Structures are given as structure tokens and as C-alpha cells.
Amino acid sequence: MYGVGVCFAALLAAAAVDTADGVDIAAVVCIAAAVYISVALAVVVFELKSAIAFILTCKNENLIPIFARVRLANPYIADAKLRQKCARNILQAEMKFKQHLLSRTTKYLRRLDTELKQSVSHIIYIRLQSISQEILKEKMDEIERTHETKLNGLREKKQRRAPQRQILDPVTNRPREIVDPVTNLPQEMGDPVTNLSKYNLTDSEHDALVNGLHHVYPPEKLDQPQFKPSTEAVRHQLTSVQLSAASELRETANSFRKVAQSELKKIGAEHRKTFSTLRSLAKNKSIIITRPDKGCGVVIMNRADYVQKMNAILDDRSAFTLINHDPTLDTENELIKFLLVLKKEGFISDQEHKLASLSGSRPARIYGVPKLHKKRENYPLRPVMSATKTVAYGLGKMLANRLNTLRTSPTWG
Q1: 293 found inside a domain
Q2: Which of 31, 179, 190, 268 is within CB 3.0–4.6 Å of 220 for a Cys-Cys bond?
Q3: Are residues 195 and 157 located together in one domain of the fold?
Q4: How far are the Cα atoms of 126, 210, 270 from residue 274, in angstroms, in the given order?
Q5: Is residue 157 located within the same domain as residue 192?
Q6: Hey, which residues does 367 pair with through a beta bridge?
Q7: Is 38 exposed, middle or buried (0-12, 13-18, 19+ CB in 10 A)?
Q8: Do residues 19 and 86 share a domain?
Q9: What is the pLDDT of residues 226-271, one digit of tens each?
């Protein structure tokens, strides 16, 4: 450690020169130990100084190192501002601890250096200092490279997470143009809502649909039972020294709780208007709201046009056949009997039998999604068959599990 072999060899070689003058070997060993301790302490001092500089850089550039990251179980309170505030408190507590430790270590190192200087001749002291500086320089370069690598990694991660510069639409307050990162020129972003119907959307209806069909809105109240365990989980991740800032963390959590409750209440009032608008659109029987065939977005069609196109698809006798009765119940009974035979003969386990056996099955549902990527006036529909809760739905899941086991097996192939 710290080139101890090189240090001791050089010290003994230096002492051998002066042994003829009456230098005690035991004294030489004590001096070597003192130099080793001083080198180790000098490395610790440099590590502490580098760590403090690292923390200051993180605070100035809003970087969050690994030891200052917090993970909250509730996604509705896990916003960037709360994480940043908690991280800054942890960084501040860590920096205070390292500054205190640096002060104590520096004082002890100075005292040890003074005692060493008084114990040996000036020539030996200069030689020992030269050896120590060579060893220390190697460790200093290694520490600097490590911290620089960490900072570059944090900067790259922050750059990847940084949102692109966007120009907001004055009506919807949403990005309508994005800046191309290569050309640095604004590019127009298409409207995610495509209206193919005769119904004219109002601004409020457009804003309600612009988030997409799968957008999840936050609750109107803060989840207190979830917030407290999340805060406790953060507290248990802190070291004994960092716990000195626990009171600040508690104050931050209490302050955040009050702000979150106020913000959620305010946002909840706005979202209630959006929900009312969406319910009104859902009750409109003249339109169909669906998704496009490719990509994301929302498509609005006339219900009459949608029904006409779907009937044209179902009238294709090469793909669909008209029947006079529903065979779902009969097929379900036959499948249950067949699965029972497989279970008795040991081909499937009890768990697989339970997964594949379904009761209350229903026929498959068919719906159509418009092919917006086809540049036509009358966009065709792509039929999609939904097999959820059909007779073979559970059987398909069971077979998928078996095939997945074969696919991931090392002997497969």
C-alpha cells in the first residue's frame, strides 16, 4: 500500500550509509514507520481535498453522485426537484464531515512531520521527503483520474436526461417545434390528434386528447401511507455521520408534503375539467376515438364511416365465415376435458392446468385502426383481433411459458 516496499527499501538503504556513524537500526525502523504513516496521511489529506472539490463541482453543476441519490417508492412524489433538494442536503452534510476530518488529519500530519524533522538530520529528511513525494504523486494522479472519470460520467448522464429545447404552442402550451440536435434548426412537430370526422373539436377537447389514450393523471391527494415509508427508506440509507442532517431531511419532507398537497389540489381541479371533457366526448355517438395503426397519437373518425369500413372487412368471405350459432361454450367444454386428460397423464402440471383452463370465455373481439401512414383521402382500416378472455387465451399463455423455457435453455439450439 502506497509503495511501502519501495519506501522501506529506500529508507534502509539511506540508513545503511549512516550506520557506520552509529545510527541505531531500531531507530531506522521507527523512522521508516513514521514516514509510512506520514505518506498514508498525506494521501488521505489529498483524497479529502479531492472529495470536497468533487462535491463542490457536483453542487455547482447540479450533478447527483451515486451516494447522494434517493429512491422514492411513490412515483407521484418522486419529482426531480425533491430528489435534487435531498441530494443537496446529503452533499452538504458529507462536505461538512470531510472538512472536519480534513482539519484534524492535517493537524496530525503537520505534528508528525515536525517530529520527524527533529529526529533525523537535514540530509536524511530531504531524502525522505523526496521518496514520499514520488509515492504521493503516483497516488494523486490516480485519485484525480478517478474523480474526473466520475464527473464526466455524471455530466454525460445529465446531458442524456436533459430535455430538448422546445418552442411551446401559445394555445395548448405544448411543444409544436423541436430543435434538431444535429442542424440546431427548429422542426415542426405534427399534431398528435388527427381528426378525420366532421365533428369540430374545441380547444379544450383537443387539449384533453393531446396527451394520448394511455395517459395516467396523478391523484388529487398525496398518498400519505406511501410517503412515510419512502422517507424512512431514504433515512435508513444514510450513514451514521449523514444522520446529523436527518433533521434537515425531515424539514424538507414536511415542507414537500405541504407543497405537494397544495399543488395536487390545484392540479386536481384542472384535471376534473379534463375528465368532464373526456366523458362528454365518450358520450358522443357520432364519432369513434381510436389510435393509428403505426406510431402514437389519437384518431377521431365518423362512426358511420368506421362501421362501413369494418363491415367491408367482415364481408370478405375468404377471411370470415358467417355462422348461425356461437360455438364458444362447446369449444370451452371440449378444451377443459382435453386439459384434464393431459393433467391425469402427467403431460401438464397442476399450475399449467389452472392457467390454461378458463370459464366464462367469450368470442374474440375485432376492431380496426386507421392506416394514417397510407397517404390517401379515405384511410383504410387494419383489422385487429383481440383474443383476451377467449377460449384459447389461457392455453396460449401456458404454451408461451413452455416455449420460453426451451428458448432460454442452454441446451436449446
Answers
A1: no
A2: 268
A3: no
A4: 78, 11, 7
A5: no
A6: 384
A7: buried
A8: yes
A9: 777 777 777 677 776 666 666 677 777 778 778 877 777 777 777 8
